[in-house]
Amino acid sequence: MKRQFTETEWDVINSMSSEWMQLDMFHRHWALKESFLKAIGVGIGFNLQRIEFNVSPLQLEIGKVYKETKMLLDGDKEEDWTFEETRLDDHHHVAVALGKQEGLGQKHSDVCSMEPNQPQFIVLTFEDLVASGIPVTPEDSAYWDNFCSKQESPVKRN
C-alpha cells in the first residue's frame, strides 16, 4: 500500500496511538481517495500518489458531516474540491467528493450537498436491500435440492 499513499499520508496514519486507530485512519484515507476516483470517473489505475489528503479534524464524530479535509493534486492545493466525510459507526467511513470536473475528461456538473442536520446515510440490512426484489425466473425447488445434495468439501482421491 506504500504506492497508494504519500509519505505525508503514511506519517498521519502511523502517528495514530494504536494499531486500531492506524487502521481506522487508513480506511479514512482510502475512502477519500476512492471518492475522488469515482468523482472523476477513472479506475484504480490512476496513480494514487498524485493525490494527497490533509485530513481535518483527525477524529470524526459518528453521524456528523465534515468538510474540512483538503486535497492536493500533483502537489497543488485543489480549492475547487470539497470532501464530505462522515463516520457511519466505529468501523465505517464514508467520503463523497464534490467539485469541478472540467479538465479531467468529464463535463462540469453542479453538485448540491444535502441540507445540514439531515440524515446523510442510512445503514441497510440485507433484508432491506432485497425486500423489493423481483425474481428473474420462476422459483424451482429442484435447484435448491440439488445444491443441498452436494458435499461441503471435495472428496480426496488417492
UniProtKB/TrEMBL annotation:
GO terms for cellular component: cytosol. Keywords: Transferase. It is an enzyme of class 2 (transferase). Residues 1-96 form the 4'-phosphopantetheinyl transferase domain. GO terms for molecular function: holo-[acyl-carrier-protein] synthase activity; magnesium ion binding. This is L-aminoadipate-semialdehyde dehydrogenase-phosphopantetheinyl transferase. It holds the Pfam family ACPS. It catalyses: apo-[ACP] + CoA = holo-[ACP] + adenosine 3',5'-bisphosphate + H(+); apo-[ACP] + acetyl-CoA = acetyl-[ACP] + adenosine 3',5'-bisphosphate + H(+). Belongs to the P-Pant transferase superfamily. AcpS family. GO terms for biological process: lysine biosynthetic process via aminoadipic acid. Its EC number is 2.7.8.7.
